[in-house]
Amino acid sequence: MNMAEFLKPENWLLPASGPRYLQLRRRLDDAINTGLLQPETPLPSEREIASLTDLSRVTVRKAIAALADDGAVVPRHGSGSFVAARPPRVEQSHSQLTSFTEDMANRGMETKTLWLERGLFLPSPKEVAALGLAADASVSRLARLRTANARPMAIERASLPHDILPHPTQVEGSLYKALSDLGTPPVRAIQKITAINLDDRDAGLLDVEPHTAGLKIERTSFLTDGRVVEFTRSIYRSDAYDFVAELHISKTKTP
Ligand code: 16G
Q1: Strands 213-222 and 81-83, sheet pairing
Q2: Which segments within the chain are labelled E, that is strand?
Q3: 126 CA to centre of ligand 1 in angstroms
């Protein structure tokens, strides 16, 4: 997909999804995260983006300014904005859709995986609902203990539609890299984070005492066409991870 296609407003701009400049910022962020816009390459000009999206130049300028505030793009005097050289944050942030492997690499840590389950299964009712599967479809499941510098960090149980990931046993390292290689990288996700006490099994895998506090994160990720690509339940050691959410004041409260 090229940028002209990617920015077509009918593919992403929704009246009920908040301010238009924030929707555009998210779309441009997606282009950066999926590699459609490569590091250190120029963003299309304000005028080009306005004409591809049918948005006003004021809206486009606000979206680019917000990306610059995040450090995702760097304005260069007289020659527009460029995609930043590398991801600006090391924490897992609300505005960056990153994989475990990338999160850890950003911290200079080496990731290893211990497989707990990997294969094709009949979906549970929860998987049918979360992935929007037909009742007779099968589901690809990957359950893993993830370590960083040999320290257990998280248990991840991912479910994907079989037609998106037909051969789960072939995934060796990063799931997101495998999805990217297949041409179906997630571009957007919704996460629900819940505080839990770890049960005996998960505490044992994460090498902490039973009933220690942990974080349960349910992530549902989407393709550019809005289809669900992944439904993952992750259990993180609460002492090992920071989640950063970026918040914006509601428009109605702005003086
Ligand atoms: C992250 C995601 C998980 C995703 C995984 C892919 C959270 C809470 N979850 O851990 O949904 O499946 O990355 O990582 O961040 P990978 O590409 O290294 O396999």
Answers
A1: unpaired
A2: 73-75, 81-83, 92-93, 111-121, 139-148, 151-161, 188-197, 213-222, 228-237, 243-244
A3: 19
Pair of tokens at residue 85: 């050289």
Note the pLDDT tens digit of each residue in 219-250. Answer: 999 999 999 999 999 999 887 777 777 777 87
Ligand 1 site residues, Cβ closer than 6 angstroms: 92, 99-101, 156, 158, 174-177, 217, 219, 230, 232, 234
pLDDT (tens digit, 9 = 90+) per residue, 20-36?
999 999 899 888 877 78
This model's pTM is above 0.90 = no
Rounded distance, CA 80 to CA 116, Å? Answer: 48
- Contacts of residue 134, defined as CB under 8 A and 6 or more positions apart, other chains included, come to none
Which residue puts its alpha carbon closest to atom 16 of ligand 1? 174
**Residue 138, helix vs strand vs coil:** coil
Q: pLDDT tens for residues 170-197?
A: 899 899 999 999 999 999 999 999 999 9
Atom of ligand 1 nearest to the CA of 101: 18
Q: What domains, with CATH codes, occur in the chain? A: 3-83 (1.10.10.10), 90-244 (3.40.1410.10)
Helix-then-strand count for the chain, H and E? 8, 10
